[in-house]
Write the structure tokens for this entry.
Amino acid sequence: MKPHTRLYSLFLEDFTLIGITILLSIAFLTSSISNDNGQWAFVYVNNLLSQKLSLNTPKLYTQGRMIIQVDAGKIRVLSSDCPEQICVHAGWISKKGQILVCAPNHVLIEIPHAP
């Protein structure tokens, strides 16, 4: 076997592997970026369901010492008395499977995969 034939074979296998990897990456990215918005958000306090909120109606909700805002199919913690404000800085969520957590207040907000 000539050295250049072996080199060509390696290049062909490498480019095939790279091509398959790129195609799989594109398929994964398009499926994860898809507009998979939820219709509802569940608010849990101490692991118990406290509220089921429609994401279709803009409104402010109070949960203990927190204010939760729903607007145009998305939800966020508008304000909280927790010390580091991580839940507030997390911003809006709108896609199925996303969560917001406020550990000091024992609150979890989830957009479930199935309502």
